[in-house]
Amino acid sequence: MSSIKLLGISGSLRKASTNRGLLRAAQSVLPSGVSLDIAELQDVPFYNADIVGIPESVQRIAHQAQLADGFIFACTEYNYSMAPALKNILDWLSRQPDTPLNDKPAALMGAGGGMGTSRAQYHLRQSCVFSMFIH
User: Fold this and answer.
1) CA dihedral sign, ordered 12, 17, 19, 25
2) How far is CA 24 from the centre of its chain?
3) Cβ–Cβ under 8 Å, residues 10 and 19
4) Interatomic CA distance for residues 133 and 135, integer angstroms
5) Domain ranges of the chain
6) Most buried one in 58, 63, 67, 102, CB count within 10 A?
7) Are strands 106-109 and 70-74 parallel, antiparallel or unpaired?
8) Do residues 135 and 106 lie in contact, with contact meaning Cβ atoms separated by under 8 Å?
9) Any idea which architecture 4-132 has in CATH?
10) Are 127 and 89 in contact (CB under 8 A)?
11) pLDDT at position 96, please?
């Protein structure tokens, strides 16, 4: 059986985030042959086209994304939309010369109050970046 490598990206930067917890829970129940790495976004600078070169933190996540067969987004909701950290890393990755996002499957999940993270997930699905994925 061939192995499947997934990359989990949470919109939350908090270590104790429920959405990061969802990714950790997913890691613990994967079938054999499937692995899930979780991207660390804490040191990723805000996207700025004036930055010369690609920051090391972005290179690290771009490498993880390149190796991944697919993505799981734990879509934190802030003010009825996706969290800035998630949008930011997608901005960085979508602007790489050979974007690691193209033609890979993506899944969304999220934990939150009220309506969960449905509005954030809706906004992510509408974004032009998300249209790169097979979904």
Assistant:
1) positive
2) 14
3) yes
4) 6
5) 4-132
6) 58
7) parallel
8) yes
9) 3-Layer(aba) Sandwich (3.40)
10) no
11) 82
User: Could you tell me the two tokens for 130?
Assistant: 């998300």
Tokens 């499947």 belong to 4
Q: Are residues 108 and 70 in contact, defined by beta-carbon separation less than 8 angstroms?
A: no
Among residues 38, 29, 45, the alpha carbon closest in space to that of 10 is found at: 38
The number of beta carbons lying within 10 Å of the beta carbon of residue 11 is 28
What does pTM read for this prediction?
0.90
Contact 63, 54 (CB under 8 A): no
Q: Is the dihedral of CA 112, 117, 119, 124 positive or negative?
A: positive
pLDDT per residue over 10-53, tens digit each? 999 998 999 999 999 999 999 999 999 999 999 999 999 999 99
Closest C-alpha among 103, 33, 40 to residue 66: 103
> Rounded mean pLDDT of 58-87?
93
